[in-house]
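Let us work through a complete example step by step.
Step 1: write down the sequence.
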Amino acid sequence: MSYATVADIKKWLDEDELIQLTDDGDQGVIDEAVVSEAIAYAQDIIDGYLGTRYTLPLAQEPTILTRFCADLAVCALYDRRPTGRPEHWQKRCENSHRFLNLVAVGKISLGVSDPEGSGGREQAKVDAPDQLFPHSELDKY
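Step 2: predict the structure and record it as tokens.
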């Protein structure tokens, strides 16, 4: 499942900045393989959060995940550089993690239902024999 594409990243970064972040060979072009790798990394982070609550892959992909995937991918691209992330990208990355954590703990819903209805978690099931003596009988002893 792909939450974001290279085209989605291009919506948030201008071409010159994306070239600076990805062009390790000084070719003067965007290295789309590097961008795709950053997107895959961001998707793994998202799946790590969502997998605690939802069965993956999601049957329906919420569009809100595109923005968070793009933000996390851009942060990963900045992390490749010694200068690190600009402050506004650092905040966007932190906000993405905060949102995904709230989804994982069930405080925010993605608006998609889990096919098993279990939220991706195993349900405890108890299989025990019927009670031999009711409480009223035990009180006599």
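Step 3: interpret the result. The first helix runs from residue 6 to 12.
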